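A quick aside before the break. I want you to see a complete sequence-to-structure record at least once, exactly as it would be stored in a machine-readable document. Don't worry about memorizing anything.
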Amino acid sequence: MSVKNYIDANQDRFISELIDILKIPSISADAAYKGDIQKMAEATQAALKNAGCNHVEICETPGNPIVYGEKIIDPKLPTILVYGHYDVQPADPIELWDSPAFEPVIKKTDIHPDGAIFARGACDDKGQFFMHVKALEYMTTHDELPCNVKFMIEGEEEIGSPSLNWYVKRNQEKLKNDIILISDTGMISNTQPSITTGLRGLSYVEVEVTGPNRDLHSGLYGGAVANPINILTQMIASLHDAENRITIPGFYDKVLELSTEERAEMAKAPFSLDAYKKALDLTDIHGETGYSTNERTAIRPTLDVNGIWGGYTGEGAKTVIASKAFAKISMRLVPYQNPDEITVLFTQYFESLAPASVRVKVTPHHGGDAYVTPIDSIGYKAANRAYTETFGVPAIPQRSGGSIPIVALFEQELKSKSILMGFGLNSDAIHSPNEHYGIFNYLKGIESIPLFYKYYVEMKG
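That is the input. The structure line, written in tokens, reads:
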């Protein structure tokens, strides 16, 4: 039976099984969900066993457990390592969801006329890693698995994968592979597949500005004492110039400028600026002068405030000058920018912006290196052939604005290249209310993944 026929025969079950795991609120950012993290790890273990892995274990780490599984058919054959994550983002703000985040519903949309599953984690990354589990099920059931396969599904990706380095360093022999296959990215559209060939790096910090030793009455002290919220907003505003370039000294020193030819190749990807603005309800776009929208989100570094707070934000009025003000700031980095160096540069500059009337504290959180994969590799060619066969058109190489720091870690520790074979869409609202994943995309992934195995092994020889 072909994979397409197998999917047709099992479609309802595949969807039902995905819905079951989407009901588990495996939120890694909140310790209150520790029990659900364990429950999700156990569900992942059971799914891998049922799909045909001959060894599956839940591996304890200093943080959340990692689920490891393998199907070894011949040590002489190539080995593909599949990476994914079972943890999800918090559902907040809950009031903006049209239906409860952990009560999955299927609804038709203009982009997904066949329906999409609305739930937290539907696309990022439960729906996408589960495609690989179902693809394995088909290959083992029909004796179509052409090589060895290993799975490493972690539970901390949404908080920066703090335990993954610890685990990888201690299990290099167990994780030994020829190539790593990851579905935690997206593609251009349901008619035009793409392969992510680059990821931006990340430096994430939290800043704290302190003024007086307590909240003060704004009438009695206003105008005489520094207001940390006012000062913090001024400092943040100073981080960009009039052309929306980042003002941190040395920030761009290692940024590689792409050639005119490379930028022209990127520009071949279909893109409608009007549709982009309409989808986001924007009257105009905003970004660094001299670059297109797609370039700004893929090949240029950025700095964004992800959250800012301080003082009184409750109902009604409370006239205070806050003692403290806070912000969380992320910087997306491009190849050759070192996240540790950027964090130091940010800290030095941000502290220099503060007047003597306040104290500043910068706390680094997590980060990671940018990554670029070559399009002339066997892995890329195998993925392109798989997409071409299932979608009817070749994939377009595309750099992503997102960050998956573990990709650089894998190359450093396991000496393996990664292929980013994603099936999500930009409109799937990952990390946002009403996250969803198209049923078409879910099933098309299950159809395409076995073809990657087939063509990779053929070309690997």
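Two observations worth writing down. The chain has 13 helices and 18 strands. The mean pLDDT is 95. We'll return to this after the break.
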